[in-house]
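Good morning,

Attaching, inline, the backbone tokens for the sequence recovery test we're adding to the shared suite. The designed sequence is right after.
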């Protein structure tokens, strides 16, 4: 058992290092056109994986991918009409708030409408992710990068703490393998990471740091949400393209929730602060 865990950890670590190197290079050095093209391709791949899990017909896949491309295209052509957050993005943020409410305040219960067969929900959540990444790209690439790594720090610390110290399950109905100790370890690590960024980087203000810290429950929410969806679909992973991590949705489940919520919380904190 210990050998299997060590092998799994090494495999996950190698994949994570390669992904991190690729993301850093892409965000820092690529042009806006290349980075936006990559974000669109990633989002399309995520949505295609969502539909593949539910065994959608080829016709449905084509129709929904066309809708996705049309929404992203319109957001670029009529950008001024989508500020500060588009209607689609607000629907995505609202969905995550509803998921978090049911998850944390309703004893881990989630609506029966939350399934991989609900293509409209997948379209809203993944399009929201894409649009918010575009917004961060236009405003601060460094902030987008640190948000991605803040979520990764939380995920990694929660995984390591849970594996080594975890005893008490947290919301076992949704994911029996995740523990309260892992959650605490991940959250503390995220707080330390955000405070260090605030002290070391000019691009990270106290409002940025607070928004990232407050988004962590939603990172957890994304993780649990996809665990819930996979269990309903009777699958372990959404794919196998990433060794040690499964599919693309398995790797970015926390990011799909936390990146949009970081933007929302940043705008909320900035607006609230302007009254004082």
């Amino acid at each position: 058992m210990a050998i299997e865990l060590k092998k799994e950890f090494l495999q996950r670590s190698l994949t994570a290092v390669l992904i991190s190197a690729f993301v850093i290079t892409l965000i820092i050095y690529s042009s806006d056109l290349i980075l936006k093209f990559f974000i669109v391709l990633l989002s399309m791949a995520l949505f295609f994986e969502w539909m593949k899990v539910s065994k959608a017909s080829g016709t449905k896949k084509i129709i929904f991918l066309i809708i996705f491309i049309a929404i992203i295209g319109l957001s670029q052509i009529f950008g001024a009409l989508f500020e500060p957050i588009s209607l689609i993005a607000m629907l995505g943020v609202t969905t995550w708030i509803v998921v978090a409410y049911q998850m944390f305040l309703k004893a881990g219960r989630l609506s029966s409408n939350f399934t991989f067969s609900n293509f409209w929900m997948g379209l809203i959540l993944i399009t929201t992710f894409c649009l918010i990444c575009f917004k961060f790209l236009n405003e601060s690439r460094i902030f987008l990068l640190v948000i991605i790594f803040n979520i990764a720090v939380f995920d990694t610390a929660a995984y390591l703490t849970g594996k080594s110290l975890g005893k008490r399950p947290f919301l076992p109905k949704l994911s029996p393998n995740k523990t309260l100790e892992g959650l605490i370890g991940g959250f503390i690590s995220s707080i330390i990471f955000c405070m260090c960024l605030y002290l070391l980087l000019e691009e990270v203000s106290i409002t940025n740091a607070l928004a990232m810290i407050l988004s962590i429950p939603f990172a957890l929410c994304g993780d649990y949400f996809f665990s819930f969806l996979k269990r309903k679909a009777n699958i372990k992973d959404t794919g196998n393209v990433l060794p040690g991590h499964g599919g693309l949705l398995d790797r970015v489940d926390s990011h799909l929730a936390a990146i949009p919520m970081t933007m929302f919380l940043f705008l909320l904190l900035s607006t609230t602060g302007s009254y004082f």
